[in-house]
Amino acid sequence: MRLFHSTMLVKLLGLLPGELSPTEAIWLVSPRPHMQLMGNRRAQMILNRVRLFASLFAVLTPLWMFVDLLVLPNPLAWHLVLLRIGATACFSFILFGYKPEITLMSAWRGMAMLFAIPTVFYMVSYLLLTPYHLNGASAAVGTGYAFLPFILLAGISIFPLTLFESLIFVLPILVAHILAGYFRFPVVDWPSFWGAFWLQGLIAGVAALAGVCQLAFMIALVLQAVRDPLTGAFSRRSGEEVIHLQCMLASRSGHPLSVAFFDIDHFKSINDTFGHHQGDQVLQQFAQALCDRVRQGDILIRWGGEEFLLLMPNTDCQQAMQALQRLRNHGFGRRPDDTLLTASIGVADLQEEGSHDWQTLVDIADHRMYLAKQMGRDRIIGTTKPLVLPAAELGYNLL
Length: 399
Hints:
- This protein is of the alpha+beta class.
- The protein has 2 domains: 2-226, no CATH class; 236-394, Alpha-Beta Plaits, CATH 3.30.70.
- It has 17 helices and 6 strands.
- It has helices at residues 2-12, 22-25, 36-63, 65-71, 76-97, 104-129, 136-144, 148-155, 163-183, 190-226, 236-253, 267-274, 276-293, 317-330, 350-353, 358-374, 391-394; strands spanning 257-264, 299-304, 307-313, 343-349, 379-381, 387-388.
- A 6-stranded mixed β-sheet has the order 2-3-1-4-5-6, with helices on both faces.
- Strand 2 (299-304) and strand 3 (307-313) form a beta hairpin.
- Helix 4 (65-71) runs antiparallel to helix 5 (76-97) and helix 9 packs antiparallel against helix 10 (190-226).
- The longest helix is centred in the middle third of the chain and has 37 residues, at 190-226.
């Protein structure tokens, strides 16, 4: 049933076949299943658009003060001027005073502040205007304040949001409209009020759909950019970003983080003897064998050629070596001549090495991988005794 709903969601969004799989379409509903790399890139985009929106409001909000002073009666005009000055100061704070980290939580906080300011502005201005019976030009200016919720709801469309996130940001604006009607209950024109509310709901739905479509294309582009097209593992460029993020998280939390550096044994001989097409098939087979058996939180990166990195969060070196030994026992597949495919593996743990620099950690794992090759290949080298399979079990001579 879940798969059916995901497929229908993809079709309803008009996405091209293969752009998002039914499983990935779940990402359009909630941010929970998003990988961290995706979340950080989306957070950066949201924060940039929050600043863009805040800069627009910071310029336009004070400019309308002169219209209020010219058209509206006192003291209403001065009350609204003071309200605009306060709102402008808040928008300026978002622009110059809010310096968040690039995380989704910071992005949501920035959006909450951005939309809270005009929502509160709308409620207060509505209460200020309620006692006055305006006519002519002043009535037209006063009516303009009622359009603010429509502008806010339309503004949701510039953000790449999931359906759940859109709902969270839309609801306070719709509630503000209902509260405004409650405060003017004796004199409100209810047919006009509910007509405006229906229109706001329609705009909210279109804005949410626009945000989801933005997110869908963003996910598709990010997945294309971060994945190695041959093996489906993370590419080196995106992998470096992932390692950096994982090292920061591990350093802050004090949790272990292990890196396993794989190099397929005698891979050059496969290309030389059987051709690059067979070599590509071996790489795909090797990556698939790892992806099928690692934990969901582990991250596979194609580092270059026949070299792969496996990030293992919350795993110390000893635990990593035990897990890698199980992978070797299952096997990495077979070479074109039907002999077993093996790899030399170096392991390093962030905590045990005493380094919080991801480049140093990878260099250590890389050095141990070369040490494994020098010791005869098909083994794991970490901070403990190397693990080796007997040559008789391999079916051919590795030396």
